[in-house]
Specification:
The chain is of the alpha+beta class. The protein has helices at 3-18, 22-33, 61-79, 85-97, 99-103, 142-146, 174-192, 204-211, 225-231, 276-283, 294-304, 309-312, 338-347, and strands at 111-113, 119-122, 128-137, 152-156, 162-170, 197-201, 213-217, 236-242, 245-257, 268-269, 313-318, 323-328, 334-337. Strand 1 and strand 2 (119-122) form a beta hairpin. Helix 1 (3-18) runs antiparallel to helix 2, helix 2 packs parallel to helix 4 and helix 3 (61-79) packs antiparallel against helix 4 (85-97).
């Protein structure tokens, strides 16, 4: 929603409030509130210095202030003689105030794979979509390669270490969600690929198998969390960066395969937010980062094609109706699903073209 539409809706909101058309006011407010309940826009620049926020109200202050405004508006609606509109507006305000806790609740974490897509949909929030991409490395300097991330990163260290990027998107349709996710993946890949970190989108079935785990939460001490991570018996870690800092983390121990895919949560909010670069350097003491392999070599060749993805990719085998074997230049053949192949063709063209 552009600024022009926002300004127009704001003036319409003032008019409807003046005429006490509370239902219309509520519907207009939803246009502002709903898209921000579960969406966080990515910011690519690394913030060098950011003052630490103190107090509960300052965290998520925009949502809190808008929520309080809605609650006060509901009181005004009661004074004006409204019956149902005050209840609806107050519920929207309370929902916005507590949106972070609601979004992080376990009953909202269930996921369902979307067929022929890279998307997973939330069982309880059908307008909220999730995508998982594996981060394939061809560098040992992981801190430098991933220090600009502003989306949740999962580090799974059961046996071999694997890194996964989780993107979330709010959209009213599957096509709009997939378009938004692919555009964000393309921008992120344009930043990380030159530093040796390449994104491989997973199709919905692969992502569902990855997240179909039974996870036991591991306590992490806030005062000295790097030492706590080194001593804690965990093999599944999720980081939630924001503006170059780590806002929250979540440590888990993989028990077994779960009943259904669940979205892991970065449940531990850090009082002092460390630099993402510093966090990666601390993790290097306890994690052996994955080395480059045939897939990272193929993705490096695909990125080097600079937009000529069709010419760079070669299909060398059809394994089934869902998978193909492809290669780039002289790289070994890699088995990919058709969904992944379509996503790569959208993610790897030169972002400036």
């Amino acid at each position: 929603m552009g600024w022009g539409i926002k300004i127009l809706l704001f003036f319409l909101l003032l008019v409807t409030i003046g005429y006490r058309a509370w239902i219309l006011s509520f519907l207009i407010l939803l246009c502002f509130v709903v898209p921000r309940l579960f969406r966080r826009r990515p910011r690519m620049a690394v913030v060098v210095d950011r003052p630490q926020k103190s107090g509960v109200l300052l965290r998520g202050s925009k949502r809190t202030l808008v929520g309080c405004f809605l609650v006060l508006l509901s009181v005004a609606a009661v004074v004006a003689g409204g019956r149902w509109s005050p209840v609806a507006i107050a519920c929207a305000g309370i929902l916005l105030i507590f949106s972070r806790r609601i979004a992080n609740s376990r009953w909202l974490a269930g996921l369902e794979p979307v067929s022929e897509s890279i998307l997973l949909s939330r069982s309880s929030v059908p307008l909220h979509w999730v995508s998982v991409s594996e981060v394939k490395l061809s560098t040992k300097n992981v801190a430098k390669a991933l220090a600009m991330l502003d989306d949740e990163l999962v580090i799974a260290a059961r046996g071999e270490t694997h890194l996964f990027l989780i993107l979330k998107e709010f959209a009213f349709s599957r096509s709009a969600a997939e378009e938004g996710i692919l555009k964000r993946l393309r921008r992120i890949n344009a930043l990380t690929a030159p530093r040796g970190a390449f994104l491989l989108p997973l199709d919905s079935d692969q992502a569902a198998r990855l997240l179909k785990l039974s996870l036991a939460r591991v306590d992490i001490e806030d005062s000295d969390w790097p030492v706590s991570l080194e001593s804690a018996p965990l093999n599944f870690l999720i980081l939630k960066p924001k503006g170059g800092f780590v806002e929250s983390i979540g440590g888990y121990l993989i028990d077994d395969e779960g009943d259904k895919p669940l979205l892991p949560l970065a449940w531990k909010r850090l009082k002092v937010e460390p630099l993402l670069l510093e966090t990666f350097e601390s993790l290097e003491k306890m994690i052996d980062w994955p080395a480059g392999d045939a897939v990272s070599s193929m993705l490096a060749g695909l990125f080097a094609a600079k937009g000529d993805v069709g010419d760079a990719l070669q299909i060398v085998g059809k394994n089934s109706h869902t998978t193909l074997t492809v290669r780039v230049l002289s790289s070994p053949g890699i088995e990919l699903s058709r969904v992944q192949l379509r996503a790569l063709a959208r993610v790897y063209p030169d972002v400036n073209r």
